[in-house]
């Protein structure tokens, strides 16, 4: 695929918007597959919640960029595609279900942290280009990611990590 030349901040903003949209679409495909491998019921519920959030975020992103007459359908986010493949390989290597849950939380958080970085930049770019409503929408999405991340951290620290300390 031939990629468009990036000439300015708006071009990069559009490129990153397409990337985050594609990441959400990939997550909507991969999270159900990952969820099937989870043993902890609380983690399964969190992934359910995350899948609903991803669907709503994709709709919001489409609407947000549509206001700029920008089509988010574009290049595949190869970074996210690679990360998902890598996550599945690591999950497959886990011997115990409790350890697999630790790996799943870590893997999901790695994906979330990548999105947090991108959404933070997108929010900043939108503000700099005086796309205030778009910046607000992106900021809401950023905060959703941060909330999911914190909830996963709490679950890991309060329950899941402790159950794996002495497995051999």
Structure in words:
It is a single chain. The protein is 77% helix and 0% strand. The chain is mainly α.
- Determine the number of helices (DSSP H or I, runs of at least 4 residues): 5
Structural class: mainly alpha
Biggest sheet record:
none
- The number of strands is 0
Average pLDDT, to the nearest integer? Answer: 90
Instruction: Please bin the fraction of helical residues.
Output: over 70%
Over the alpha carbons, how many angstroms does the gyration radius reach?
Answer: 17 Å
Q: Which strand-content bin applies to the residues? A: under 5%
Q: What is the distance, rounded to the nearest whole angstrom, between the alpha carbons of the first and last residues?
A: 47 Å
Overall 3D shape: elongated
- Give the low-confidence spans: none
SSE arrangement, N to C? HHHHH
Which features characterize this protein?
single chain; 168 residues; mainly alpha; 5 helices; elongated
């Amino acid at each position: 695929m031939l990629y468009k030349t990036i000439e300015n901040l708006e071009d990069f903003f559009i490129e990153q918007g397409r990337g985050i949209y594609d990441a959400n679409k990939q997550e909507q495909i991969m999270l159900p597959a990952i969820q099937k491998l989870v043993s902890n019921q609380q983690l399964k519920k969190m992934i359910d919640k995350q899948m609903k959030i991803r669907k709503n975020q994709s709709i919001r992103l489409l609407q947000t960029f549509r206001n700029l007459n920008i089509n988010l359908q574009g290049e595949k986010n190869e970074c996210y595609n690679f990360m998902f493949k890598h996550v599945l390989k690591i999950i497959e290597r886990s011997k115990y279900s409790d350890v697999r849950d630790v790996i799943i939380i870590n893997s999901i958080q790695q994906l979330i942290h990548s999105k947090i970085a991108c959404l933070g930049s997108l929010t900043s770019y939108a503000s700099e280009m005086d796309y205030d409503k778009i910046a607000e929408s992106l900021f809401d999405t950023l905060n959703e990611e941060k909330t999911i991340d914190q909830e996963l951290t709490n679950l890991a620290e309060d329950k899941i990590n402790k159950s794996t300390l002495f497995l051999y």
